[in-house]
Every structure is written in C-alpha cells, then in structure tokens.
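Tokens as discussed.
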C-alpha cells in the first residue's frame, strides 16, 4: 500500500520561504512521476510543479523562478522549495503520485500579506 505524507507547511510572511516534504512508502516511488498540487476553498486543485522519474521538471507559470521541485529516490522523498512567497500562494498543498493517482493528506501554507 502506498502512503504519501506531507510536512513543512506553516505560516510565513510575504517574501519568506518554506520547504515542503513528501515522504512516500512503497516500491513504486522511483518509477513514478510526482507532483505538488494546491487548493484553496472554492477553487479546483491545481498542479504547481511536477518531476519525472529522471528529474524532468515542470512548473505552473505563477511559481516559475520562485519554487523548485526535487526528489531523492534513495529516500523516497519529494520536496518543494518555495521562495519569495506571496499571499496568493496560500493554500493546502498536496503531494501526488501521478501515474498511480495516490494523494497525501495535505499541508497548509499560509502567507501573510
């Protein structure tokens, strides 16, 4: 059974930084593309960034140059470094194993304006 557990969310002032972590169980991690998504009340969940099994990265335009996704296959971990945070980045952030459609429980990020 695959489990994804996010951590690292919190409250930060605009311009600050946070690093989200996602710990994945199971043997499928290293062969799976992984993604970070976010959702605010009343809005659809949106893809923030994804990373392929060999490290290819994609970002939504609004976070390019500020967020960096990375992974450590030896540790079954995926990370999201978020710099220069803005109020509009406030959301619940979720980790996802994309091909198998497994999701974590989410971690709240709140950025004060």
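Sequence:
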């Amino acid at each position: 059974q695959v489990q994804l557990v996010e951590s690292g969310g919190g409250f930060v002032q605009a311009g600050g930084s946070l690093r989200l972590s996602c710990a994945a169980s199971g043997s499928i991690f290293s062969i799976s593309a992984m993604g970070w998504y976010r959702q605010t009340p009343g809005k659809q969940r949106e893809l923030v960034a994804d990373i392929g099994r060999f490290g290819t990265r994609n970002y939504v335009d609004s976070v390019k140059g500020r967020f960096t996704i990375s992974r450590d296959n030896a540790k079954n971990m995926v990370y999201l470094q978020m710099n220069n945070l803005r109020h509009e980045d406030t959301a619940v952030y979720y980790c996802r194993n994309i091909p198998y459609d497994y999701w974590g429980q989410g971690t709240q990020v709140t950025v004060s304006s």
